[in-house]
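Our preliminary data section would be incomplete without showing what the modeling component actually yields. Below, a chain of 232 amino acids is followed by its predicted structure, encoded as tokens that our downstream tools consume directly.
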Amino acid sequence: MYKIELIIGPDTKLAELILEYPGLIDALAHLNIKLGFGDRSVKEVAEYYRINLEAFMVIIYTYCNHLDPGKTIKKEALADLLVFLKNSHDGFKRDQIPELKNLIASFAEEIPSEHGKILVSFFDGYIHEVYEHFEYEDETVFPYINAILNDQQTNGFVIHDFERNHTDIEQKLYELKNILIKYIPEEASEYHIKIIRNLFDFEKQLYYHTNLEDRVLAPSVKKMERKERRGK
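Predicted structure:
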């Protein structure tokens, strides 16, 4: 059947976007947007939930893989983007990571213990890195940006420090998937495939999250820093 390409913009119906890009459901959850919005457009939903439209659009473009490289947003939009990124961290820690941990623990009990121990140990090490990554952003980077947004004094930190320390937490996830696919022998378990599927989904969510930080957040804050320096 011939399919007309969906144009993504403020007047696009949000329901149509989700049917085309189902991953958007996770983004809406991080913005506390509930399903059941009928035929409301993106702009109408943003107004209803009092979300800055520019911030909402870059999130939508990211999750629909339509984001321009180096996109910058205005100061008013950055505040809502920060809320979204912080909520994403909380969602990863509250939902996806515990679910993965439980699945892996259950699977480890069903496979030979030497494989089970390696799997649990590798996953725990990986999650430790992910938590450190989130903690650095929650306790250092986001408060710094909030201070800039509120014209408050900062402590010498600049967004370039974030870019320099923004570690890649996706590589180890790739290695974990490899272990599960290549080296853990197939057992009669409901968990094996489910874990791999969940890891792919987790990886995709991290990819969108990182894209927003690297391609929108950092360039936008840099622009604000330049303006601030010129104003002194």
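The CA atoms of residues 144 and 154 lie 7 Å apart. The mean pLDDT is 89. Preliminary results of this kind motivate Aim 1 of the renewal.
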